């Protein structure tokens, strides 16, 4: 596909959209590692802003320009994008995400007319669709599973694709690749809303009593210690990366850090109240905890409680 042919993403499943955008960027950077990424929402985007996004640069540096929510673009902007698609700037890969439906369908038609192959990112809403998604995630991570095990994981985790993807990847890593019904029951026994993230989301914003309560409930229903520890480590690492990158547009930071945009946005909100010293201390706590829950501690329940208290103290560091 030439850079003149736009990448067309249809649908509104955010995780799949983020992955499709990332794939487009990776392909462009295989041709030229210096490709720049620019991204904007069509909502409120002015004609001048769009013109600046796609305007030829002085040295004709290649770039990928992502326009999200094209179905919500103002009429004048939609018309301008259609005109651009017919006469694009050399070296610019335009990525158009359209949520579907009749609104601004002319944008989709314009992309198809010049040869775009639509990437379907339709909403995954039924349990059987989520189970199919889980099986694909496990296979992509190098593991094997069954239909029953995939459905069991969906029942345990719920409808959040991001958590399903994270759980699938973690199960492959922790089981050696065989994700069967027994493994799912062992790691995710209990209520659907009990995950390691239920603990980490409270701890990371300073709600230590809430975090300890969530921990006790998670342990009471049999959630694996390693999953709680992984969630705490992931939350701390994400905030440290985002805080270290400074202020900036969510999408630009996502590209810079190699993180999904939703994760950058969440980490930005959770980073309030943290200092560099506190984050460094919290990273050390989660590194210690990783070894403790994998056999290094006589009492992994206590190790998790202590880590939560230590992260709380780290957040209060000046």
From TrEMBL:
This is DNA-directed DNA polymerase. Keywords: DNA replication, DNA-directed DNA polymerase, Nucleotidyltransferase, Transferase. Belongs to the DNA polymerase HolA subunit family. Its EC number is 2.7.7.7. One of its GO terms (molecular function) is DNA binding. One of its GO terms (cellular component) is DNA polymerase III complex. Gene3D superfamilies: 1.20.272.10, P-loop containing nucleotide triphosphate hydrolases. It comes from Nakamurella antarctica. It catalyses: DNA(n) + a 2'-deoxyribonucleoside 5'-triphosphate = DNA(n+1) + diphosphate. SUPFAM superfamilies: post-AAA+ oligomerization domain-like. One of its GO terms (biological process) is DNA-templated DNA replication. It is an enzyme of class 2 (transferase).
């Amino acid at each position: 596909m030439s850079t003149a042919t736009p990448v067309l993403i249809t649908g509104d499943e955010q995780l799949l959209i983020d992955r499709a955008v990332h794939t487009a960027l990776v392909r462009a950077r295989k041709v030229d590692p210096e490709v720049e990424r620019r991204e904007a929402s069509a909502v409120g985007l002015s004609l001048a802003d769009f013109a600046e996004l796609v305007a030829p640069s002085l040295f004709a540096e290649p770039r990928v320009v992502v326009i999200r929510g094209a179905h919500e673009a103002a009429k004048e902007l939609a018309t301008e994008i259609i005109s651009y698609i017919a006469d694009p700037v050399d070296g610019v890969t335009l990525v158009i995400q359209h949520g579907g439906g009749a609104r601004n369908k002319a944008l989709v038609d314009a992309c198809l007319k010049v040869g775009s192959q639509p990437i379907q990112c339709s909403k995954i809403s039924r349990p059987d669709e989520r189970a199919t998604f889980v099986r694909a995630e496990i296979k992509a991570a190098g593991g094997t599973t069954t239909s029953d095990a995939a459905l069991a994981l969906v029942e345990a985790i719920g409808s959040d694709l991001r958590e399903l993807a994270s759980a699938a990847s973690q199960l492959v890593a922790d089981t050696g690749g065989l994700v069967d019904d027994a493994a799912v029951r062992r790691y995710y026994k209990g209520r659907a809303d009990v995950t390691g993230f239920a603990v980490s989301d409270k701890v990371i914003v300073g709600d230590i009593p809430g975090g300890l309560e969530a921990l006790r409930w998670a342990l009471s229903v049999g959630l694996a210690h390693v999953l709680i520890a992984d969630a705490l480590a992931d939350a701390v690492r994400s905030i440290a990366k985002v805080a270290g990158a400074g202020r900036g547009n969510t999408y630009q930071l996502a590209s810079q850090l190699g993180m999904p945009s939703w994760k950058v946005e969440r980490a930005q909100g959770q980073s309030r109240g943290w200092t560099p010293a506190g984050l460094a201390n919290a990273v050390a706590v989660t590194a210690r905890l990783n070894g403790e829950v994998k056999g290094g501690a006589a009492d992994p329940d206590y190790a998790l409680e202590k880590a939560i208290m230590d992260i709380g103290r780290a957040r209060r560091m000046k």
